[in-house]
Amino acid sequence: MIPSTLLHYLQVFKTLCRISLVREMMFRSNFLITVITRLFWFTTQIVLFEIIYRNIVSIKDWNREEYFAFMATGSLINALVETIFMPNCANFSEQIRTGNLDFVLLKPLDTQFLVSFEKIDFAMMNQVLFSLGLLGYSLVTLGRPISAEQVLMYLLLITLGVTFFYSLMLILASTSVWFVRNQGLYDFWFYLTVFARYPMSIYSGTPTGEVIRALFGYVIPILLVVTVPARILLSKTLEPNWITAVSIAATAIGLVASRTIFLWSLRNYSSASS
Questions:
Q1: What's the pTM value of the predicted model, to 2 decimals?
Q2: Domain interval for residue 42
Q3: 274: in domain
Q4: What digits encode the pLDDT tens for the residues 157-202?
Q5: Please, where are the H alpha helices in the chain?
Q6: Domain-embedded: residue 104
Q7: Are 200 and 224 in contact (CB under 8 A)?
Q8: C-alpha distances in angstroms, 198 versus 81, 151, 267?
Q9: Angle at CA 73, nearest 5°, toward 259 and 53?
Q10: Which of 31, 115, 227, 249 is the most buried (most CB within 10 A)?
Q11: Domain count, the chain
């Protein structure tokens, strides 16, 4: 039986989704342009690596089909984050600047919940479909048997990946309380996550690559949350074998840290009416 509080929040989330969808349909041309733009970007990425793999057999231990499965995994995680959390975290600084955060604080719901789910960017959902299509193509082309356990583990790790990136984004958004106009959020997010577009093993072999591998593999493990689910789904050996536990632990720590920092930022927020 679903607890009444959880059921109430699910109903609120459903209402927010409906409002977001109505808002999107009010500006259909913008919706269509976004879909076309994301399709063009997704296609160019595929074409680029299609050209690369015509000249080589593999990149490190990733062949063409395996790399496309990895690309689909990273794109899927990124699409879910940009659909649900990016517009809200980016809007947080605007709420602080205009004083609209005062109204959010007055509502009888958890502030983090409202800040995180107020708007859903349905135009980005097309990238979720593109990613699933590329993933399906890669798996069928590879022809490897996939167990139900692998699929369940993959879905769990995808959820953990989205949660980790959400936690990271919420921490960045929380700094808006001190900086007020945090317009660099999108830029910083892009620069930080650009490393996660490539498998972790690619960064091994050079001093600079090893630094990147250590920093974004274990300190801020953005490489793990994309590489680990792809390797598990593809039955590729994880080295070291405890790396999955690191990914799960990092997500849990990130979630707790983001919650703590967000509440701390609210305590330092100066109301527009004060």
A1: 0.88
A2: 4-267
A3: no
A4: 999 999 999 998 888 888 877 776 666 666 777 777 788 888 888 8
A5: 4-26, 28-53, 64-84, 86-98, 101-106, 111-117, 125-142, 148-174, 176-179, 185-193, 207-214, 224-233, 243-267
A6: yes
A7: yes
A8: 18, 22, 38
A9: 145
A10: 227
A11: 1
* Residue 2 dihedral angles phi and psi, to the nearest 5°: -80, 125
Cβ atoms of residues 255 and 231 within 8 Å: no
Identify whether 273 is part of a domain: no
Would you state the pLDDT for residue 120?
87
* E-assigned strand segments in the chain: 58-59, 62-63
Torsion of CA 34, 41, 78, 198, to 10 degrees: -170
Helix (H, G, I), strand (E, B) or coil at 144: coil
User: How far is it, in rounded angstroms, from Cα 209 to Cα 221?
Assistant: 15
**Tokens 């076309």 -> residue:** 36
Alpha carbon distance 26, 9 (integer Å):
26
On the CB side of 90, CA atoms within 13 Å amount to 18
Residue 222's CB is within 10 A of a number of other CB atoms, namely 24
First to last CA, the chain: 43
85-128, pLDDT tens digit by residue?
888 888 887 788 777 888 888 888 888 998 888 888 888 888 89
Spatial contact of 203 and 212, defined as CB atoms under 8 Å apart? yes
Let me know if residue 43 belongs to a domain.
yes
- Long-range (24+ apart) CB contacts under 8 A made by 62-65 are 62/199, 62/201, 62/202, 65/138, 65/141, 65/142
pLDDT in tens, 4-50: 788 888 888 888 888 888 888 887 888 888 888 888 888 998 999 99
Task: Reply yes or no: is the peptide bond before residue 199 cis, omega within 30 of 0.
Answer: no
Residue 42: both structure tokens together: 């997704």
Task: Give the Cα separation of 238 and 99 in Å (integer).
Answer: 48
Cα dihedral 225, 198, 152, 10, rounded to 10, equals 60
